[in-house]
Design brief:
Layout (H helix, E strand, L loop, with lengths): L2 E6 L3 H17 L2 E8 L7 H31 L5 E7 L2 H9 L4 E5 L13 H9 L4 E4 L1
Parallel strand pairs: 1-2, 1-4, 2-3, 4-5
Helix pairs in contact: 1-2, 3-4
């Protein structure tokens, strides 16, 4: 194994996935890429468009860099070569598209999404279905 992709969203489950991916990278000598996908939500009406765009910009500019920096720091302590990236769009699809350049994708079993999927989050479930590479779902 040479390259591992880990999808994160700021949830404790995603942090556990990053830790597991770093352990696997350390054990196999693989490099690690942490990826945050900003979901693209359709605006609810003409007035909602500006607030939806502003929210996405706020997340990308303020929240994501700090989250990625913290996870990079944690993983580097294990001696892992690490990089980070962001994308915008449907989360599972963006991870699956990026995964084609990796040997494995690691995600948490649930994230910050809705409470609808208690056992396996909707992103993890969808990613398992569409990923061109193996997916490790961490509990």
């Amino acid at each position: 194994m040479k390259r591992i992709l880990v999808g994160v969203d700021g949830s404790p489950e995603a942090a556990a996935a990053a830790d597991k991916a770093a352990d696997l990278a350390q054990a196999t000598g693989a490099s690690l890429q942490i990826m945050y996908v900003v979901p693209r939500h359709l605006p609810r009406g003409p007035g909602a468009y500006a607030s939806d765009v502003a929210r996405r910009d706020l997340v990308e500019r303020d929240y994501v860099p700090g989250l990625l920096h913290e996870l990079e720091r944690r993983c580097r302590r294990k001696g892992v070569i690490i990089d980070s990236a962001t994308a915008t769009g449907p989360v599972a699809e963006a991870l699956a598209e990026t995964a084609s350049d990796f040997d494995m994708v690691v995600v948490g079993h649930r994230g910050r999404g809705s409470v609808a999927s208690k056992l396996l989050g909707s992103v993890a479930k969808r990613l398992v279905q569409i990923s061109p590479t193996p997916v490790l779902v961490v509990r």
